[in-house]
Predict the structure of Hydrolase.
Amino acid sequence: MKFNIYVLLCLILCVNTLTSQKKNADYRLHIKKTNYPVVIDGIGNDKAWEDADEAKDFFRVLPMDDGLANEQSAIKMTYDDKNLYLLATFYNATEANYFVESLRRDFSFGKNDNFLLFLDPFNNQTTGFSFGSNAFGAQWDGTMYDGSRIDLNWDSKWISEVTRDDDKWVFEMAVPFKSIRYEEGVTEWGINFSRLDLKSSEKSSWTPIPRQFPTAALAYTGTLVWDNPPPALGTNFSIIPYVLGEVNRDLEANEDTKTNGKIGGDVKFSLTSSLNLDLTVNPDFSQVEVDRQVTNLDRFELFFPERRQFFLENGDLFANFGYETIRPFFSRRIGLGVPIQAGARVSGNLNEKWRMGLMDMQTASVDETGLPSQNFGVLSLQRKVFGRSNIGLMVVNKQSINYPSENDSINSQYAKYNRNLGLEYNLASSNNLWNGKAFLLKSLAPDENGKGIAQGAHLQYSSRKWSWRLQEEWVSNDYTAEVGYVPRRNYIKFSGKLGHLFFPKGGPLVSHGPELNINYFFNEALRQTDHLAYLVYNFDFRKRSSLMFFVSDDYVELLSPFDPTRLGIADLATGTKHQWNAFGWEYQSKPQSLFTYSFAGRLGGYYQDGNRTSLTTELGYRFQPYVSLSANLNYNHIDLPAPWNTNEFWLIGAEADITFTNKLFFANLVQYNEQTGNMNLNSRFQWRYSPASDLFLVYTNNYFVTPFETRNWGLTLKFTYWLNN
């Protein structure tokens, strides 16, 4: 019943709010084909630019969306048979003082003077591509989804250059048409341009955008008008082979040093200009950035994001179904401690209304544990409805191959197969003020205990001054998603938030205001098991620093045994009830300083009438643009009755990011986790010797904290090359 009510509410709102015209349809930039060569040098004096139309008169978005930007910008675009070209000039109203972190790709948006391009080739206002650069030439690229979100793990083949002086900085780029997806024959794309200028604390956009939305909001794009349809791509494929050699040793298992060689690679083949086939054979992800460790005092499994390249393009089709804690598909379940033999994926747009994602992955068996080889299949279909909303269908199948019944005791009781079927409706209004979702999931398994249901729905409103959200969830006790991320089952949840902002007319503050959040959990008999309510007050300053205070109220009835220190000392019993209050704060310094810092804290109660103090700080210093140093420190002090008594532990991370050029990087990360008794070192050297082609040298070493000695170490040399037809 709850599900039907929310679907009806979403449909009514959809009919009322989605049929209006695109908000910034009148902002049009005409692009004409050039017959002259374009040299990508960051100067922009080629004859091809002389007749190109210009997008200028940018609007201010932050600190307030109240008129034209003080720091003005000008954009020109042109194209030929192979590439899309862009020339951007950013003028300085005052003497230049550029701020960047480093030359690292896919930089942090808020900590760099930068320019970003947002492309919506399908005019669906929900998906697209983003390209850009900071003021010293570090590149940015990603795929866009959910109307404004960007996945920076996506990497493509393109070139750019930057020049700068006191009066301006200039960015010039060329993106091969083969590096993006679009529908053939279409002569209008959604497009927008964004600039962040830290010296003036001003973010601006070519089209006007309300300040509560990111400049990446595709609902507010203008229109790129082609003089002729972009060139048909014809047959387009890329081969990305790799070869690697590695040396490693596991001292914890008392193994000898091992050497190993490996080859494999990916193939990308365009079935159409907007639908792509990806194949991978014997994939390797040794160069992927390591996970950041966290102090874990949660009762449930932690989430770590996917970083492997093969799973990322059009990843929203697979990864965004459901909620963050109710995902029927989570790609990190594939290849978890077992080798992936091969995989295939078809993803992209079938036409203006339909998107599809189809994936199949095969893993090898593991003789040591008796785990059989497994096949993972996923189908995702998405149908655009009304203006920006969509209806989605998902099917997930995990199937063990040649599964021997005598191994049942060492595997999950559902290891033979596990399936999920899902239906979802996503609401997005034309003006972005209203957003919502409603979904229903059904799991299938050999045992009746694995045949359950999960369901959720929410409705959200976001204006300049007011924001609110209402949400409900239900996960039955017998719902299973072995290829998903569902850390909690057997609950019904009701949650909501209400926030308001005040905007002073002057002074150091841009805005301030309260926000109330409530979360109530019940079992399936509708008996309350826990709740979390907290009141936040936020302060945002004109120089982009921020301050927040909160007070909270927690109540927990344990549904299973739990060690509140996660140190293995003892467990609190199932059914015990705990309540406490806490107070906390967080401050972020302005990003313009060479020395940046943040500090956060939490003081208050804890389980068993105990107390917990948590202090966190992040420190950073940069020798721009070549060296960025940072340190993260987290300290927890927990007082409990016996047998836990008093415990304290540190989590320390230190990072040195050295960027010799925007093609030569050396990243070093050291993490010390006293809670888990582990220290980790990861050093990664990367040379991007050609667009999208790299040489990696990666060294890892894990240590025991007590006694301090090596657990395991490894050294990998990997070579990849991107070959286009």
Q: What stands out?
A: Confidence is low (pLDDT under 50) at residues 1-5, 15-19, 406-414. The first strand starts at residue 28 and ends at 33. The two ends are 54 Å apart (CA to CA). DSSP finds two helices and 39 strands in the chain.
